[in-house]
Specification:
It is found in: Cytoplasm. 47% of the residues lie in helices and 16% in strands. The protein is α/β, with parallel strands linked by helices. The chain has four domains: 3-127, N-utilizing Substance Protein B Homolog, Chain A (Orthogonal Bundle), CATH 1.10.940; 141-176, no CATH class; 181-239, Sun protein, domain 3 (Alpha-Beta Plaits, 2-Layer Sandwich); 242-430, Vaccinia Virus protein VP39 (Rossmann fold). The strands form two sheets. The protein has a seven-stranded mixed sheet, with helices on both faces. Strands 2-3-1-4 form a four-stranded antiparallel sheet, covered by helices on one side. The structure holds S-adenosylmethionine (SAM).
Length: 432
């Protein structure tokens, strides 16, 4: 198996079929499980890096190729992109090898006639890679940031308006930085059990750092897939961002409560909430489809939780049977995901202005149904994994204005400023 061809085919499929890159990556690495760890790491790095830096790479290709990137044949376009990524960002691969491999691959895929073109463009870029000229930083800040950090310009302009230039640049840097995996250790473990687990993880060659925000949050580095973390299959830890943990940590959950999570898949917050109940009380975790609730079930099984059930249910539809039943409603709603583009690279290219306008309408529609499930005196937590004010602060203001709730507080976590994903949490208490 030619691993560069594997990468090329993945890039082609992601572009043509709009397949989610992390799902495709998982299935390809599973299928070619016999490859060495080094080969797998190369595939992952080049594919993810090429996607992540696409805007910058296309800008460079457009400066060096007579044929604009948009007009190239998809195979040639993606072959050039992955080669430029290696030339610019991977010191370990000699530039000449990158050019030769690209030419060989073009030949194999019946593009012999373009061998000269590919070789010429790549060798020129390799030769001049330290002198590439970019848009003028002072004259057009948004365009410069867009190319340098590979982020669509309309998003940058929006953030510059919402957060200022400095914070926008800090966020863009953070979105490209390699972040460790964060895990939530099962809170019901005692100190000795926790120490024993951490020791097992360290002995597996994984580097551990305690996260500063929560006693049960840890950052892990140098791991070979989530499933191989000692304790994972036994449900002793769950991969989850700290922002998500904070959402449940500060929800005021008490033993004996009834917690309703209206958009719960894959179940990170709902299972965390179930642990907080310490075996007394109950969580109902809902999501739109059976396919989604199956993901929650998997999580429940793995963690061995008894006091949580799932149900497929459309959160936009009011369910009378739950009227004023919940002590806490978790409304972790569908959103643009702009706070997690560092982890899910497809989001930044797939999001549109129209979607940004429509999402607050969906969020309001769901909230206008689910607030009724909160008991008088109970709590509603509204959260998203975005940094888009129209989906966050504006929706929270609208909610407090229209329904019988006291606004407790809200928190916007920003990448680069906090050691978390970009995330928004607003807390409301229903009037008695
Ligand atoms: C941000 S995710 C939830 C993450 C989850 N709370 C966790 O912590 O693991 C939003 C979820 O909303 C679900 N969703 C979207 N529209 C919905 C609807 N109308 N009713 C119920 N769930 C919906 C999606 O399937 C998705 O799983």
């Amino acid at each position: 198996m030619n691993i560069r061809e594997l990468i090329l085919d993945m890039l082609l499929e992601i572009e043509k079929e709009k397949t989610y890159s992390h799902i495709l990556m998982r299935s390809v690495l599973d299928k070619y499980d016999y490859l060495t760890a080094q080969e797998k790491a190369f595939i992952k790095r080049v594919t993810e890096g090429t996607l992540e830096r696409r805007i910058q790479i296309d800008y460079i290709l457009d400066s060096y190729s007579k044929v604009p990137v948009k007009k190239m044949k998809p195979l040639i376009r993606n072959l050039l992109r992955m080669s430029v990524y290696q030339i610019l960002f991977m010191d370990g691969v000699p530039d000449s090898a990158v050019c030769n491999e690209a030419v060989k691959l073009a030949n194999k895929r019946k593009f012999q006639s373009l061998k000269g073109f590919i070789n010429g463009v790549l060798r020129n870029i390799a030769r001049q890679k330290t002198e590439i000229s970019y848009p003028d930083k002072e004259k057009n800040k948004a365009e410069y940031l867009s190319v340098w950090y590979s982020m669509p310009e309309f998003l940058i302009s929006m953030w510059m308006e919402d957060y200022g230039i400095e914070q926008t640049e800090r966020m863009l840097q953070a979105m490209l930085a390699v972040r460790p995996v964060t895990v939530r250790l099962k809170e019901t473990m005692n100190e000795a059990e926790k120490e024993a687990l951490l020791k097992r993880i360290e002995e597996a060659g994984i580097r551990i750092r305690k996260h500063p925000y929560l006693s049960y949050a840890y950052e892990l580095e140098h791991l070979d897939g989530v499933r191989s973390i000692p304790g994972f299959e036994e449900g002793l830890l769950t991969v989850q961002d700290v922002s998500s943990m904070l959402c449940v940590e500060n929800a005021g959950i008490k033993e004996g409560d009834f917690i309703l999570d209206v958009c719960a898949a894959p179940g990170g917050k709902a299972t965390h909430a179930a642990l907080k109940l310490k075996g007394r009380g109950r969580v109902l975790a809902r999501d739109l489809t059976e396919e989604k609730t199956a993901l929650i079930e998997e999580n429940i099984q793995r963690q061995g939780l008894a006091n949580i059930t799932t149900e497929a249910y459309d959160a936009t539809v009011y369910d009378e049977t739950l009227n004023e039943k919940a002590d806490v409603v978790l409304a972790d709603l569908p959103c643009s995901g702009l706070g997690i583009v560092g982890k899910k690279r497809d989001i930044k290219y797939n999001i549109t202005k129209e979607a940004l306008e429509e999402l607050p309408l969906l969020q309001k529609k769901i909230l206008s149904a689910v607030w009724q499930y909160v008991k008088p005196g109970g709590v509603l937590i509204y959260s998203t994994c975005t940094i888009h004010k129209e989906e966050n602060e504006r929706v929270a203001e609208w909610f407090a204005h229209n329904y019988p709730f006291e606004f407790i507080d809200s928190r916007q976590l920003l990448p680069g400023l906090e050691e978390t994903d970009g995330f928004f949490i607003a807390r409301f208490k229903r009037h008695v």
